[in-house]
Amino acid sequence: MLKEILTGWKNYISKSEVPDSIAKQRAAICAACPEAKYGKLLAFIKDSLKEIQGHYCGQCGCPLSAKIRSNDICSKHKWL
Ligand code: SF4
Predict the structure, then answer these.
(1) Model confidence over 35-54: pLDDT tens digits?
(2) Which of 59, 71, 72 to mutate to test the pocket of ligand 1 (most atoms within 8 A of CB)?
(3) Where are the domains of the chain?
């Protein structure tokens, strides 16, 4: 999981290996998920996908800006 999240951050910073359309779909699902939590420490990280900006997943603790752009999976199987 750590490797996937690090790749997600790399994808966040540079050109994503996950297509924008997929990241967008995942962000919409996460934004509607009760496990998406707002983290004050993540608030400074800007994201073009405003619906998940500053949020992390309550299931795995991963910042969503990185998670949705990685090859990780949703632990609740809401997206692949
Ligand atoms: S990764 Fe899955 S469990 Fe976590 S916030 Fe997104 S949809 Fe919810």
Answers:
(1) 999 998 888 888 999 999 99
(2) 59
(3) 2-67
